[in-house]
């Protein structure tokens, strides 16, 4: 499979991993849009939010909890941060492996998109 994020999970593409457990990994975005820009992904390949199964709900809940913890660890929790999931072409999703962006460390736009 030529999925970039699956290759990061398998260690075939190097990345700056900041968190990992049996289900989830988080790493620094290669093209950060903010002083803190982490990407949080499930190890398992889920193509997009649109493809989520009901049985994946707990996993996505855990991804959000990991984002919350990393925001604390990286020192942005108090000032505030943003968590984003892009879905599909018009949603701006470029990598077809479900992921959550954690952005912080600067004042983000008041507009969502
Ligand atoms: P999307 O637009 O799909 O929501 O976001 C994909 C994100 O993955 C982008 O912010 C992009 O910079 C990041 N990205 C793409 N390829 C790599 C990579 O090989 N390594 C890392 N660390 N980030 C990547
Ligand atoms: Zn994948």
Structure, described:
The chain is α+β, with helices and mostly antiparallel strands and 113 residues long. Helices cover 20% and strands 22% of the residues. The chain has one domain: HIT family, subunit A, CATH 3.30.428. The chain has helices at 4-9, 57-73, and strands at residues 17-20, 24-28, 36-42, 81-84, 100-104. β2 (24-28) and β3 form a beta hairpin. The mean pLDDT is 97. Bound molecules: guanosine-5'-monophosphate and zinc ion. Guanosine-5'-monophosphate binds at residues 4, 13, 15, 27-31, 39, 86, 92-95. Residues 3, 5-6, 45, 97 line the site of zinc ion.
Compose a concise summary of this entry.
With about 110 residues, the chain is of the alpha+beta class. About 20% of the residues lie in helices and about 20% in strands.
CATH class: Alpha Beta
CATH topology: HIT family, subunit A
**Helix- and strand-based class?**
alpha+beta
State which percent range the strand residues make up: 15-25%
The mean pLDDT is 97
CATH H-level homologous superfamily name = HIT-like
Cα shape: globular
Strand order of the largest sheet: 1-2-3-5-4
Helix fraction?
10-25%
Give the total of domains. Answer: 1
- SSE sequence, one letter per element: HEEEHEE
- For the record, the CATH architecture stands as 2-Layer Sandwich
Describe the main β-sheet briefly.
5 strands, antiparallel
* Rg calculated over all Cα atoms: 14 Å
Report the uncertain regions: none
């Amino acid at each position: 499979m030529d999925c970039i994020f699956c290759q990061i999970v398998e260690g075939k593409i190097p990345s700056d991993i900041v968190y990992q457990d049996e289900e989830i990994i988080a790493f620094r975005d290669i093209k950060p849009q903010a002083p803190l820009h982490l990407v949080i992904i499930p190890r398992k390949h889920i193509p997009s939010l649109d493809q989520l199964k009901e049985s994946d709900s707990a996993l996505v809940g855990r991804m959000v909890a990991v984002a919350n913890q990393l925001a604390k660890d990286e020192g942005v929790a108090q000032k505030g941060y943003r968590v984003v999931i892009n879905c599909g072409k018009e949603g701006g999703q470029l990598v077809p492996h479900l992921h959550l962006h954690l952005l912080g460390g600067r004042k983000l736009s008041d507009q969502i998109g």
